[in-house]
Amino acid sequence: MKKILVTGATGRTGSLVLRKLTELKDEFSVTGLARFEAKVKELFGTTEGFFFGDISDPQILQSALTGCQGLVILTSATPQIKGEIVPGTRPEFYFPENGTPEIVDWLGQKNQIDAAKEAGVSHIVLVGSMGGTNENHPLNSIGNGKILIWKRKAEQYLIDSGVDYTIIHPGGLQDAPGGLRELVVGKNDELLTNPPEGIPTSIPRADVAEVVVQALREPAARNKCFDIISKPEGDQTAVVTRDFTTLFNLTSPGF
Ligand code: NAP
Question: Which pTM was predicted?
Answer without folding.
Answer: 0.98
